[in-house]
Write a structure and sequence with these properties.
- InterPro entries: ABC_transporter_permease, MetI-like, MetI-like_sf.
- With 324 residues, the chain is mainly alpha-helical.
- The protein has 14 helices and two strands.
- It has a two-stranded antiparallel ribbon.
- β1 and β2 form a beta hairpin.
Length: 324
């Protein structure tokens, strides 16, 4: 039996009218968060989006008198030159190989140091260790290159000075390409590991201490706690940092390579030449802006597809840890 509701029974009942939330009202309600994001928004707007029209340089034969939009349009001729010359494949291989070494060894060392710092019980020693490992990050690449030269120089280097004191043959380091991959990787790890370990150490600090205490009560030793509690806890952080790193896998550390090796040491090009140093030579030595822009565009497009592919693979294995 259906009950009819009379109009009189609704008299006096409050009528709730839902206000439509406009984008402007929503923006105002989150004004504090938006204000905090303004510096980052301006940074990417000025450094990443406003220069985008300059990509047109990659498809023209740039002429100084005619300007960017008055120069001859050549299509993909700049890219064809890079491919036919063989320079593109060598530069790509070197850049990816170095970045993979930086990513793999860097993350292993950073995670290991963060775990070791977490296991330290003396607070003063923990703070001292963090400060000493963090210090190399503030040393400029110019100074790093100067230190390396004073150690490795054939005539005046510390290393050859020690070898000569034992009547051994001095090493011609700056003309021997086989040892430079090791020198570059070790230098990068020395300078960046302390800084990178802070992210993992901060993630460990977010771990619930009750879980660790419960594991200790159940008899888990330090290695078992690290294996079954700490490392799984660091997994999401590692995946996110890995995806960010893969996005820049074709962007070499110009400051490191330029100051350690130099941009014109032809004897070391096979082992140390990366995309950034090639672009620098194209701009500063040959004044070929179109070729440099073509390489930079290739970097960006290739890096974009690497991030998309890596994120897709992570989604297949661990969907909750994907970047997007």
């Amino acid at each position: 039996m259906k009950t009819a509701i009379s109009a009189s029974s609704l008299e006096g009942a409050p009528i709730v009218v839902k206000k439509r939330v406009t984008p402007l009202r929503r923006f105002w309600s989150y004004r504090t968060l938006v204000l905090m994001c303004v510096p980052a928004i301006l940074f990417f707007l000025v450094m990443s989006y406003l220069p985008m029209p300059g990509l047109y340089l990659a498809f023209i034969n740039y002429n100084y008198t005619a300007g960017i939009f008055g120069s001859e349009f050549v299509g993909f001729d700049n890219f064809k030159f890079l491919v036919k010359s063989g320079a593109l494949w060598k530069l790509t291989f070197n850049t990816i190989a170095y970045n993979l070494a930086f990513i793999i060894f860097g993350n292993i060392l950073q995670i290991g140091i963060a775990i070791l710092l977490n296991e330290l019980r003396k607070k003063w020693f923990k703070k001292l260790s963090q400060s000493l490992m963090f210090l190399p990050f503030f040393i400029s690449f110019v100074l790093v290159g100067l230190i390396a030269y004073n150690i490795l120089s054939y005539d005046f280097g510390l290393l050859n000075g020690i070898l000569k004191s034992f009547d051994w043959e001095p090493l011609k380091t700056y003309s021997n390409p086989t040892i430079w991959p090791f020198i570059i990787v070790i230098t990068f790890l020395w300078q960046s590991t302390g800084y990178g370990s802070i992210v993992y150490f901060a993630a460990i600090m977010g771990l619930d201490s009750e879980i660790v205490e419960a594991a200790e009560i159940d008899g888990a030793n330090a290695l078992q706690r690290i294996r079954y509690i700490v490392l799984p806890w660091l997994k999401p952080t590692f995946i996110i940092l890995l995806l960010f790193s893969l996005g820049g896998i074709l962007r070499g550390n110009f400051g490191l390579f330029y100051n350690l090796v130099g941009a014109n040491n032809t004897a070391l090009f096979d082992a140390t030449d990366i995309i950034e140093t090639f672009v620098f030579r194209s701009l500063m030595n040959n004044f070929n802006f179109s070729l440099g822009s073509a390489v930079s565009l290739y970097q960006s497009v290739f890096g974009f597809f690497i991030v998309i592919t890596a994120n897709w693979l992570v989604k297949k294995v661990s969907p909750e840890n994907t970047l997007f």
